[in-house]
Amino acid sequence: MNLRHSMTQPPKKTRKISPDTLTFIHTADLHLGSPLTGIRAMDENMAEKLTQASYRALDRIVDLAIRDEVDFVLIAGDLYDSKRQQIYEQLKLLHALERLDSHGILVYIACGNHDPHSAWSRSLKWPKNVHIMAEDGPEVVFFEKDGERKAAIVGVSYPRSSVWENLAATFPEKEDDWPFTIGLLHGTLGSSTGEHVSYAPCSEEDLAARGYDYWALGHIHKPAVVHQTYPTIVYPGIPQGRDIGESGPRGCYYVVVRPDGTIEPTFVETAEICWEDTILSIEGIETLDELDSAILEALDEIREERGGRQVCCRLTLTGRGEVHRPLREKKAAEGLADHLREVEPEVYIDRITDNTALPIDRETLVQREDLVGDILRISDGLQQNPHAAETLKPLFQDLFTDKRGKKCDPVSPEEIPDLFREAETYLLDLLNPEEEKA
Known about the structure:
Shape: elongated
Number of helices: 12
Structural class: alpha/beta
Radius of gyration: 26 Å
Number of domains: 3
CATH architecture of the largest domain: 4-Layer Sandwich
Oligomer: single chain
Number of strands: 18
């Protein structure tokens, strides 16, 4: 464990809350300089907007800290997206930290896997309010106000990009004379990995065993208060989503610690551009103009719900209806998306997925003793069989081992039921069972 020392906050002229109350902002995973290669290949202009939105999210965090006169800001790793930072993102971050310094707000940073301690530029002189946690073991820093210790921040930075050991287990236990104690760590808690690599894995029991009051975590991009009290465990998530996998509200946590020890974390949205995954049924829609109106109405609702922010939307059309006929034409979904981008610029359509089908009398068709009936009965059996996905798994594995298949994303077990439905729709479209009766 490293030498303990203190960082003292300069006195402020005014305060909006009791001086005995501790306030701080907890953020992480800004990923400044993220290349956004996926959307850049589709739309260079939107990719540039998203790039700038990450910096504006940082500005919003700084604005919040200054407006509410917080005591300090915690950053739990991955400020940068890469170990090889460009001058632009370095200077943007420097300016943001200098703004906090000019208002007497301290900043504590624990480096993560994208920006390990060794990768931080030695060409910049960080302002005096910034403390970057050591890489050779957990470090204890005391925050002082009015000559009194008000908080202990215990943190560690990644020495390299890949850290597989349980760093939380190396943190010292809270000592009797420590004030309100915060653990600052970039890592993976339990089974909360999702699409993230399990760097610095730990359990809630590991964190609770240290005896701290609050754990300021980073690495998982979805915001969550994992545990409410004793200890409070929080992931703030990414302040600005970069793709559809980071949809929904994105921001940071504003935390108030009352004199009685009550901890009140409040989520504050900082994203300038919001990602939304939207599903729209075509049931009852017969023509393209009706579909156009229904989509525009849905997009208006999304924009209002997101408070007027720019929205990137991935739209999935579902259900059965007559409008499926024009939608099944080649490049129909792409043409519809291009049209919507022109008429509704505030809601950018990232992609339209057509999962619609023609209206059919399924109960009648499934009784038929022909190919159509066979298809429906097989489809029903596959969708109702909980072991069907496992049975077909070798087939999908073979598909992804040839030259073309290697370029595709593998199929997850959750996607297989959707593939069954899509296959059924495709075959019925080819056979046109309802049109046979016309």
